[in-house]
UniProtKB/TrEMBL annotation:
<dbReference type="InterPro" id="IPR027417">
    <property type="entry name" value="P-loop_NTPase"/>
</dbReference>
<dbReference type="InterPro" id="IPR015223">
    <property type="entry name" value="MipZ"/>
</dbReference>
<protein>
    <submittedName>
        <fullName>ATPase</fullName>
    </submittedName>
</protein>
<dbReference type="Pfam" id="PF09140">
    <property type="entry name" value="MipZ"/>
</dbReference>
<dbReference type="InterPro" id="IPR050678">
    <property type="entry name" value="DNA_Partitioning_ATPase"/>
</dbReference>
């Protein structure tokens, strides 16, 4: 059975599609067969990223690794029909791939619920601020003390309960701190402390994600990732880009995926 990696939260602009694309490409370059699904049937950032990649390959002649992508947005369906199409797509990819990377929309949908309940690994990218922290938990405005889980955290809990009832392995939930500032600012420390406290209460692991870098905005139109720069010559291998590649290696290592050997 394919290992299902779901990249999700219920807030836009946190780097879900960038994370999905880089995780999928990293696994392909490690010799794994990878399937891809974009459940944001309207925005389709992940799907458009992959379309840009195919177009770049056609223009340039570079033989870049591509995941097997199943487009679920080709026609308007009811929630029930969309669910059936998702189930059929996952069944197809399950027999043809080692990993399925699923990018979820920044909103609560039936498809997102289904994906979370199917996740072996859940990655929740989070901008490093209390605005995004509110996605996970409610906090006291004066003390900063965690008061309780958010609606999204409760949805993940429901997905975990559903998996447990079906006799499946627990979800390995990783909260990814994206756009970390270079300096150890007071807000950064407070967010970190709050995440560590909450992680113990509701059961996720905290990992550093991608820093804020111009390169990510430049890669999307060509469908490229950090791992393609040297091969294609489309970006300078400066210190910032080298550091970004190391962040990706650290992320893949932190995911602790089965049968994935990464550099030490």
């Amino acid at each position: 059975m394919a290992h299902i990696i779901v990249v999700g939260n219920e807030k836009g602009g946190s780097g879900k599609s960038t994370t999905s694309m880089h995780v999928a490409t990293a696994l392909l370059r490690l010799g794994k067969r990878v399937g891809a699904l974009d459940l944001d049937l309207r925005q389709r950032s992940f799907g458009r990223y992959l379309e840009n990649r195919r177009a770049f390959v056609a223009r340039s002649g570079h033989n870049l690794p591509m995941p097997e992508y199943v487009d679920l947005s080709s026609s308007q369906k009811t929630d029930t029909q969309d669910g059936e199409r998702l189930s059929a797509a996952m069944e197809h990819l399950d027999s043809a791939t080692d990993f399925i990377v699923i990018d979820c929309p920044g909103s609560h949908t039936k498809l997102s619920q289904m994906a979370h309940a199917s996740a072996s690994t859940l990655i929740t990218p989070l901008n490093d601020s209390f605005i995004d922290f509110d996605l996970l938990a409610r906090t006291d405005p004066d003390s900063g003390k965690v008061l309780g889980p958010s609606i999204y955290a409760e949805m993940v809990w429901a997905a975990r309960q559903s998996r447990a009832q079906a006799g499946l392995k627990p979800i390995d939930w990783i909260v990814l701190r994206n756009r970390l500032g270079a300096q150890a600012m007071n807000n950064k420390r407070k967010v970190g402390a709050a995440l560590e406290e909450l992680s113990r209460r509701i059961g996720f692991r905290v990992a550093p994600g991608f820093s804020e870098r111009v390169i990510f905005r430049e890669l999307f139109p060509k469908g490229l990732t950090l791992l393609d720069l040297k091969e294609t010559g489309e970006g300078q291998m400066n210190m910032s880009n080298i550091a970004a590649r190391q962040e990706l290696r650290d992320l893949i290592r932190e995911l602790r995926l089965p049968d994935v050997l990464t550099e030490s």
